[in-house]
Queue: 2 jobs
Job 1
Amino acid sequence: MNNRRRALQRMGALVLSFGAMHRAWGAAIVGVRVWPAEDYTRVTLESDQALNARHQLLQNPPRLLVDIDGLTLDPALRELVGKVRPDDPYIAGVRVGQNAPRVVRLVLDLKQPVAPQQFALEPVAAYRFRLVLDLYPTQEPDPLLALIREKEGADQRAAQSVRDALGELIARVDKPVALPAPTPAPPTSPAATAPLQTKAPPSPAEPPSADEQRRIDRLIIVALDPGHGGEDPGAVGPGGTREKDVVLQIALQLREQLNGLPNVRVMMTRDADFFVPLHERVRKARRVQADLFVSIHADAFMRPEARGASVFALSEGGASSAAARWMAQRENAADLVGGINVASVNDKHVMQAMLDMSTTAQIKDSLKLGNEVLAPLGRVGRLHKRQVEQAGFAVLKAPDVPSILVETAFISNPEEEQQLRDPAYQAQLVDALTTGIRRYFAKNPPLARNRQL
Ligand SMILES: [Zn+2]
């Protein structure tokens, strides 16, 4: 009996070790995330080992197959199915299945044709190995046309609401009044072209009309850049507040305020929770020939007692202080955490040449802008430094756009973390930034543009 028990124990040990070996061959999924946005939707699979995968696009209906080796279907992977949002611009749904003994197949049902990019990321910060699938549209929409048509749409909606309000008021007056019909006349009637007649905006594929081109040339375009986003949370406060969330809230409110100024249009480098690489933020601002670039942050610092707002511009030489250099290094690391497909940055050399261009004039204007913003910010809370600091921030390197990076407060300071969450405090910050930007434009009117589409 004893021998038999020992034999069984040995067998048990053997089975156990075989089980452990089996587990060691397969990777375990530690997290699945989906980041939907108009720009692109990202699907991230995070695992304890690097994953080997290949993908294939199929038509009728459009879908993306992804086969992942050395993986068994587990509950963590199945969670992906529930993570696709109904408003995802690209993904209609996800199915997962064990395609072969050690191959898991994901099927992404698509809402429109996509140009997928697949890449892997090594462990960094709090992340283990990541397998990333970015689904881009097959044709990139023109950002300038989108801006001008967004303004047209807003004007039309405003005109419509004025007409609705007028109609309602007059209807209440007890006498017949000749009013244009509130609903559009049939297209056969020439009277349909009344001044307030709304018409559907042209599709983005059409070239701009002469009227649109004049409006584009007259526009003052402010690029607002909420830092971080998606896989990159930015700094996280002691109470769990994420930098990427508060800076987006502030930027969206600032967009509302600035869009209320005559001829000003705001272009956001991101308007949702997704990651935008640093060079892409610069490229977006240059594509619309932005007159200004304002990057908004709320970082942590080495000491929790550090407090106050700071404003940064690019430096041509070294940083203006050790703290400024440290901050720039921190911000420049965003791409590592957010995750970029290095292979897809094929115009890397062109990018580098652009970033190395002389930026003396840009820095001079950026310092002017920075000083205009610093003064009203100092009346909201305290300032970390009384002058604009300078360091080599990658995101401020558009050679032809005055660019500043505003650290609104230190999220690592418990008191400032509370303030950053407070809508009233956010509104004060937004007012201060608006005041600074208006003063800069009043003293430095933007040059007339000839914006090419
Ligand atoms: Zn930041």
Job 2
Amino acid sequence: MKIALINGSPKKKDSASGLVLENFKAFLTGDDQIITELHFYRPQISTEEVDKLMDCDALVFAFPLYVDAIPSHLLRCLRQLEWVLTALNGREILVYTIVNCGFYESQHNELAIEMMKNWSVRAGLKWGQGLAIGTGGMLNMLENIKPGQGPFKKMKKAFKQLANQILTRSSAETIYFTASFPRFLYKLGGEAGWRKAIKENGLKKKDLFLQK
Ligand SMILES: Cc1cc2nc3c(=O)[nH]c(=O)nc-3n(C[C@H](O)[C@H](O)[C@H](O)COP(=O)(O)O)c2cc1C
């Protein structure tokens, strides 16, 4: 079975989506799996990348939520792919999507997952499953803490479920994951990050509250 793992973050390095895929890969066990890893960080895909995708049985996208939706560069890539994929004539490719967001609640990703579902229908593909991840600001910790440990205790189960759908080529309802961490502490951490960033950019804390 050929599976494509596609990082849809515009960040060339250090993306949460990349770390999620890196950790998720370990759950796609089995001898006959061929994994192709791609990174769509620009608004177009090369013909070589298109060829690799057309040869796959499952496409697994992982991207950040941008303004409650799909990042615009990725949307362009999807539009480009649509033309090619609709010409496949009946070959069944399944689409799975992991969306992570900065907000605490994973439900914010629901619309973007719905958009991906609609895109798969339009591109003549079959929808598999979505995984919505909240607390995206904590995902950089995946470098040291594995799924199943600490705040990512419940991530192992979510990854197992998604991997199982992919390996059995089946579809299921969206899975929702938020790190096991108090909401108020997550918010405090996020606000500290904004204060640090504004200082580094030569502005004052009160400028965070400027209105147009
Ligand atoms: C332009 C932009 C728009 C964003 N919009 C949202 C949003 O609507 N909701 C949200 O929860 N997070 C939003 N975020 C936060 C990202 O989804 C979050 O930082 C994510 O973890 C980044 O993932 P990545 O490192 O894979 O790019 C936004 C970030 C950027 C840069």
